[in-house]
Design a protein that fits this description.
This protein is mostly helical. The protein has one domain. Helix content is about 70%, strand content about 0%. It is built from 8 helices and no strands. It has helices spanning about 10-25, 50-75, 80-100, 105-115, 120-125, 135-160, 165-170, 175-200.
Length: about 210
């Protein structure tokens, strides 16, 4: 079976995102990646606003392509396509976050909407759980969803901004926030790579 190269856009999204959050902050005087959020890289008065928006648009395009590949794989395996739609949601949210730069009121709305997209690993694990040929991908999805949930719980302390946990996290909130994004992109990268690799084997994981 021909490999669906759209699945490889997930690793590309990870590469673009990591490059963006490493390179762009270096061009902003006084920016602290350990303490400050990713959104502050491209906030309205930042010199990196439009390069940051372009980076997120590139990530969005990659996620849309990955979502199409994941949808095709799910259809071929006769599984529900919910995980693909959730991955596409993350692409849409990324593009919106870049356009509606912080502190635009819609920025936080789209930021919170990512909570929906973060359920993609869970959706994949549940909808593919009975497919023995996708066993390793399902286990990986469960693992990444657990790690993502832990990171998400830590990030949600920023909403309350009180208590001992927040006091401990606050000096490192930039890293804590980045861990959430990286967990999601790590899942999409791993799932995309494993599905792509298995699709070229004699017994592909998603062929019936």
């Amino acid at each position: 079976m021909t490999r669906d190269n759209r699945l490889l856009f997930a690793p590309l999204a990870l590469i673009v995102f990591i490059a963006g959050i490493l390179i762009l902050p270096a061009l902003i005087p006084g920016y602290d990646s350990i303490r400050q959020t990713v959104s502050e890289i491209g906030e309205m008065d930042s010199p990196m606003r439009w390069p940051f928006a372009a980076m997120l648009l590139a990530v969005a395009i990659c996620m849309f392509a990955f979502a199409l590949g994941l949808r095709a794989a799910s259809i071929q395996a006769r599984h529900n396509t919910l995980s693909a739609w959730l991955a596409a949601w993350m692409g849409a949210a990324a593009a919106a976050l870049g356009w509606f730069a912080f502190p635009h009121p819609l920025h936080n709305v789209f930021g919170l909407s990512e909570l929906i997209g973060y359920q993609a690993p869970l959706a994949f694990a549940l909808t593919w759980r009975n497919d023995p040929r996708a066993d390793s991908i399902v286990r990986f999805s469960w693992l990444m969803y657990v790690l993502l949930s832990i990171s998400l719980a830590a990030n949600l302390t920023a909403i309350v901004r009180t208590g001992e946990i927040w006091n401990d996290i606050r000096p490192f909130y930039g890293l804590v926030q980045r861990s959430l994004f990286l967990c999601f992109f790590a899942w999409s990268t791993g799932a995309g790579w494993m599905l792509w690799k298995s699709s070229g084997s004699a017994r592909p994981a998603f062929a019936q």
